[in-house]
C-alpha cells in the first residue's frame, strides 16, 4: 500500500501517525516453508540482510509483514546512504521496522481496519535486535511532526485508523508528510564533466506522465569523488545512442543518454508548473524503486483531507461515569441474520447484570470480528496502549512469549460497551480470577463433538455426565457452547490448583467414557481421534485457558447465545440455535441466573473421590 504526499501535519482523532523511515520498503512472507524477503520491485533481500533474514525464520507465527529496512548512524538516526553501503560495514545497525500485517496463521488480515491489524501485529511479532514493531501515536499529528523534526528524521506517515490494506495503490488513507522536499526521479543520461571534475557533470532526470517519459531537470550536486566514479561506472553499462525522451531537452554540455532504468532520490526547493525540479540535489540511488513508479504529479492528484473529526453513524453514551464513544453502529456483523453492531452492544447492555458477575476480575481473551463474522476475526490478549485510562487491566507474565501481557478485565457496563465497539462478539474469560489466578473458581467439562455427531448425541453424553455427578453428590451446571457442544461447570471455590482440578476432571471423563464408549473418546490427538466421536475434553484447566462465557453471543449464523440450561431441559430435538439474540433476554429474565452456583463456595473434592471409589 502506498502513501500520497501531503503538505502539512494535522490533528485528527480518526488518524494515527508513524515515523517516516528513510530506508528500503520490504515485505517479509513467512507463510511458506522458506521465507521470502523482498523489495517493492521484487528484489530479494534474504542474502543482502542476513541478520534480519535469520530472525525472520525464528518468528513464532506464519505471517506476511510490511515494513522498512533502516540503517542507523552513530547518533541513532536513520541514514539511507549508510543503508546502501551496508555490505561494506558488517557492524552497521540494521533494523526491520514492521508497521503492518497482511496475513496471519492462514487468514488474510488486509480487510481488517489498520488499528486492529497493528494490535494483532504487536501481539504476534517476536521482536529481536534487528526486528522491531513500529509504534504510532493517535490524533496528535502536529505535536508528533514537531518531535520528528527535532529528531531529524525524514518526516511522518499519517494513516487513517480504519483503513484497509490495498496493494500497489496510492490512496488518501495513507499520507506522507516530509520536512524536506524529496522526490524520486529516473536517470536518463549524464553530461560531460567540466574542469577537474571526473566521471560526469550532471545527471539528466525524468519522470513518466501518461506513460510518456518527460524531462524534469538535472542535478550536478550531492556527489563526492567516490560516488561520482561508482555511478559513472554503472551508467556506462546503460548507454544508448538516442535520447529516451520524445522531446529532447536542451543542455549546456554534451549528453550521453542512458536506458531509463536507474531511479534516484533528489531534494529540491520547488517544482515548476512544467514539472522541472528547482535546485535539485542528489541524495541516493533507489534500488527498491522501479522507473514505472516515478510519475509526475498532476493537479488532479492533490490530496484533500478534512482535519475535522468525521462522524459516521457515531454516538457517545455515558456509563458508570465514563464516556464511551460508539462508532459504525449500522455495520452489519451477522450478514445472513442482518444483525448490526449496534444490536450487539444493546444485547450486552440488556443482560449486563447477569453476565458481569461471570466476567468480573477475570482476564479476557477478546474474540474480535471488527468487520463481521464472515470476515477474518482474531484473538487479542494484550490491551495495547490506546485504551482509555479507566479500562481495568492486569499484567500477567507469559512464559511462551517471555513477556508480560496486559489483560483487560470487564467489571462494568462501560467496559462491556467499549469492548463490543471494538468488535468483541463473544467474551472468553479465564477460569480463575484476581487476585489469585493460580486457583480456578470452577472446573469445566467440554463436550466437543465431531462433524459427524448429532446434537442429540451431545445431549446424551451430557446427561451421562450428570449421572456421574449425581452419584457423587455434585451439582453441576450445564450450558450450550453456542456452537456445537455443551459445557458443564462445577464450582471449585479456589480450593485447588489447576493440576488438581485437571486430574479430577480426567477421572470424571473416564467414568463417562466407560458408560458411552461407542460415541465418546478421550484421545487428545486429532490425527489419532475417531472422527465419529465426541471428544471429552478435560484439559481446559491451566492458567490462561478460556471458553466462551455464559450468556455470551457466538460468532455463528443464527446469532446463538451460550445459554445455561436446567438438566430436565436436555431433551432430544434441542438445538444450540434455540437460544439466540432475539429470545435470550426474555429467557434469562424468566429463569434468573442458572449459573449463579458456579461462583459458589465449591465442592469437597476429597469427599467426591471417596464416593467415586465406593461406587466403583
UniProtKB/TrEMBL annotation:
Domain ATP-dependent DNA ligase family profile: 98-222
EC class (word): ligase
GO BP of this protein: DNA recombination; DNA repair
Cofactor(s) this protein cannot do without: Mn(2+)
GO molecular function terms noted in the UniProt entry: ATP binding; DNA binding; DNA ligase (ATP) activity; DNA-directed DNA polymerase activity; exonuclease activity; metal ion binding
Superkingdom of this protein's organism: Bacteria
EC number: 6.5.1.1
One matching Pfam family: DNA_ligase_A_C
Reaction(s) the record says it catalyses: ATP + (deoxyribonucleotide)n-3'-hydroxyl + 5'-phospho-(deoxyribonucleotide)m = (deoxyribonucleotide)n+m + AMP + diphosphate
Keyword DNA damage: yes
Keywords: ATP-binding, DNA damage, DNA recombination, DNA repair, DNA-binding, DNA-directed DNA polymerase, Exonuclease, Hydrolase, Ligase, Manganese, Metal-binding, Multifunctional enzyme, Nuclease, Nucleotide-binding, Nucleotidyltransferase, Transferase
Classification via PANTHER family: ATP-DEPENDENT DNA LIGASE, BIFUNCTIONAL NON-HOMOLOGOUS END JOINING PROTEIN LIGD
Stated name of the protein: DNA ligase (ATP)
